[in-house]
């Protein structure tokens, strides 16, 4: 499996654990657009990079933790515009509907909302490890000796 070739939309959705319809909605509303090849009209295909898959998995994790989609949008806008850190090295702290970025010794409220709640920590490095493990499993051959899934656009 060669990651350089990218992942089709259906493959990316499967690896991340979301529906293709959800992936399509996120792309059409600019939450996350595929970095390798975007759709260019009817019948064209999106092609997602490994980093795109990591961001998709983080988005899914935040939504699964109960963060509202609009807050996830704000968080990712901030992460993309304000941080030079590799996303895999970032640690997000989730408090109710707030998403905070742990930057060294300080917490930055990247959603800019008040409120109290239970703190959950989402170490993106752990999300990256889960994604890597999923990709390894997909690349393993099945009983016929062919790879279960490749990174080629389908």
Count of structural domains = 1
Identify low-pLDDT runs. Answer: 113-119, 148-154
- CATH level 3 topology: Multidrug-efflux Transporter Regulator, Chain: A, Domain 2
Question: Could you say what the CATH architecture is?
Answer: Orthogonal Bundle
3D architecture notes:
By secondary structure, this protein is α+β, with helices and mostly antiparallel strands. It has a single domain (3-139), classed as Orthogonal Bundle (Multidrug-efflux Transporter Regulator, Chain: A, Domain 2), CATH 1.10.1660.10. It has five helices and six strands. Helix 1 crosses helix 2 (20-28) and helix 3 crosses helix 5. Mean pLDDT is 77; it is low at 113-119 and 148-154.
How is this fold's topology laid out?
Elements: E1 7-8, H1 9-16, H2 20-28, E2 47-48, H3 50-64, H4 69-82, E3 91-95, E4 98-103, E5 106-109, E6 119-123, H5 124-139
Antiparallel strand pairs: 1-2, 3-4, 3-6, 4-5
Helix pairs in contact: 1-2, 3-5
Key features?
two-stranded antiparallel sheet; four-stranded antiparallel β-sheet; single chain; 16% strand; 154 residues; globular; disordered C terminus; Multidrug-efflux Transporter Regulator, Chain: A, Domain 2; alpha+beta
Summarize the structure.
By secondary structure, the protein is an alpha+beta fold. It has helices spanning 9-16, 20-28, 50-64, 69-82, 124-139; strands spanning 7-8, 47-48, 91-95, 98-103, 106-109, 119-123. It has one domain (3-139): Multidrug-efflux Transporter Regulator, Chain: A, Domain 2 (Orthogonal Bundle), CATH 1.10.1660.10.
